[in-house]
Predict the 3D structure of the following.
Amino acid sequence: MNIMEPLFGFAIDLPPRRARDLLGAVHRQLRSAILDGRLKPGLRLPATRAAAVALGVSRNTVIAAYDLLLSEGYLVARRGSGTFVAENLSPPRRFKARSAAPELDRRLAPFWRALPPLPPARAASFRYDFRIGLSDKASFPFHIWRRLSARALRALSKAPSAYAEPEGRPALRGAIAKHIAFARAVACNAEDIVVTAGAQQAFDLLARILVTPGRTMAAFENPGYPPLRDAFAAAGAAVRPVPVDGEGLVVERLPTEARIVCVTPSHHSPLGPTMSLRRRTALLEFAHARGAAIVEDDYDGEFRFAGRPLDALQTLDRGESVFYVGTFSKSLFPALRLGFVVAPPWARPALIAAKRLTDWHGPVLAQDTLAPFIAEGHLARHLRKMRRVYAERRAILLKALAHHCPGRIVPIPSEAGMHIAARLAGDLRADAVAARAAAAGIGVQSLGAYFNAKPARNGLAFGFGMIQAERIDEGIRRLAEVIR
Amino acid sequence: MNIMEPLFGFAIDLPPRRARDLLGAVHRQLRSAILDGRLKPGLRLPATRAAAVALGVSRNTVIAAYDLLLSEGYLVARRGSGTFVAENLSPPRRFKARSAAPELDRRLAPFWRALPPLPPARAASFRYDFRIGLSDKASFPFHIWRRLSARALRALSKAPSAYAEPEGRPALRGAIAKHIAFARAVACNAEDIVVTAGAQQAFDLLARILVTPGRTMAAFENPGYPPLRDAFAAAGAAVRPVPVDGEGLVVERLPTEARIVCVTPSHHSPLGPTMSLRRRTALLEFAHARGAAIVEDDYDGEFRFAGRPLDALQTLDRGESVFYVGTFSKSLFPALRLGFVVAPPWARPALIAAKRLTDWHGPVLAQDTLAPFIAEGHLARHLRKMRRVYAERRAILLKALAHHCPGRIVPIPSEAGMHIAARLAGDLRADAVAARAAAAGIGVQSLGAYFNAKPARNGLAFGFGMIQAERIDEGIRRLAEVIR
């Protein structure tokens, strides 16, 4: 280490003489000194020979450092009179960091300034995991996925470098169209489909193209899935909660000004009922009469355990009002980040342009793996298997609730999906029950967070995507102890 | 086939008697008839026995079809008096499709209504491919990628199903921070980084959080990269072009009201010059004085062939003004769709929330493959190799232009990147030259599309990401014939 106070007017710390990057160290320290104003603009630097002696480095090192700073514009050489710190640099001062109150920084748009911080990622693990929205990967045929993925990578390695289609890979769009025509009776062709990064990106893109900020009113189920509502709020929509009953969204309560209506007709999120046919046709009538668009979020309708599925709104729609949103986060796994929209023709160019502007296109490898996974029948096979697995868990769960918590936790009737909701009877408070359950190793969610307007229904949601069948009864038995 | 006009009042087409889905056919046709009004609400259906005879199917088939329609709500049974088409269905009529003029549909927000349709995806292939923005995959170590990808998939298959971190996988953020600290002297830690779906999503997320629609002015280099500008325009920013000279953006010409300034300081897109240090410090001064944010798009700064890289704006910034955007589309390949932002602390919570709302998080497998690819040194090694490859092509290209097109196509000096721009001398028109070249199998782009304001500079851009070294001279020789 070497300190050279008198010559430059400030200390320069150098590494030991034989260190590898002596030049880098000299260069960096001089540059920092120029940038923060310790070496003032116009100042003449010491001659290289004197600097070398003072620093205890070779003269070549000093010459090289000066040369670098000259080439970078930090120094200027004036013929015959030496080397000077450049004028006009006006190096920015070190301003006070604003990090103390980031939400107040006026450079952020208002919506993002006011946003509460995100809860930390759900790293929690529970001995009895009834959290909702998560699927079981244990039975997923990863060996098939690995083979198809390797094949896709080989094909990619041979293709010339290129940006892909914003609307999604043609083979995947074709496979999705066939799959949902068969599995969900959604009538569409490959060209009706836009592949997205999960359902969330579908919501976001639709909010983009449908919302005129500050003008458009969007109606949502209350209770409802908060990230869906948030995507439209972020795009500048006025967000209106509409109540839900045993037949789904109460269409008669829709504000007449609503120009977007978001619903989960196959399996209400989070309460569970299926929207009745009467309400479906009323909603389509509303959309046509008002010129409104409908976003149909079919997040886990593949899993149906009783009755026969009602037709999707998209199937019933004769007015090109419905955007049908599907996801592979539940049928496969969320890490994949693939979903899709079936869009009416009038919205397709805008939707594709929005996808293009927001991230150009989805990841090619994942798409090129999923396409043959669907086309070769692996998805349908996996869904059949998981339907059996989930049906068994669901039956055990209902039985366990009836047995351990009779009259205290009362399931809300539903016929589909990967979770069931339940009312809490008496003076039990759902938030408190969920907190006490978590402390006892039981992951179960209060319905409170799904309500956009008070009063929130006092209830719990039980997912069975994560918990093995043989652990369910024990988990509910322990929950019964918690609420006793 | 069986036609049963008198009983139902309309024709029902059935498949041959022994066909597999006779029940489905009956069910579907009755349902359609109800939905489109051929069977009116309140109408009493024929008795099952009579219907079976008329249709030539078993009575059980008819009973099952009626039961399905009853369970779906299309029919109602009144005790003792039979089965009726449900009232209150008010089935939507088949409305006229609006597809004829999709851009006029009033359900779209104004920006998306007015948007010109996207050009078709660039499926073109050229014998001599000088298109810009595309990298060479031929030398990419796909065998290493495949191994790391298989490892990531194994780990994923063992982890419980979960949504991942919106800001990106911790290991990837750590690897990127180390990589850019070393390769680009960008000072940051893992927590400063948000992983995005390519640079385009970074632009989009920044536009989201920084633009108040209808209020915020954003300044762009003119010429400049159109998709960057478009992302801010889509978010509602007022977009202002600012001229560029040999030192980059002419900072003195920035409108004082600009609150966002987007620049490509390492290698101007598309002209090529590096922004001078004088302009860099002036831009940082402007940002601090006006409370503006700077978006630094470093899209191909890894490839530098002469001189020494100037410090990134992010490195020079003392005011927390700079968002540094990097991408792996050029250093690896665009199909990957991974990029990142280095964000100042005040904007980080909003940026992560925006990522969460727009697509929750990036694909896990790709991130978990890229992280060890960087951490184990494969990225740095690949970049070193490609720097040599591109340097050779660049030298051949410059020599070929000087030899075959002297005084006609004049390269604009630059020291970095995967393309060079050139002025066209005399009365040659770039758009016409590019069109004639394409017809001759030569892919070369006019600079015209990069100009946001007239007059557009008359020039061409030559990429060398796609063309092999040994084809360059021949391609330019043929281009010389085209312009002769």
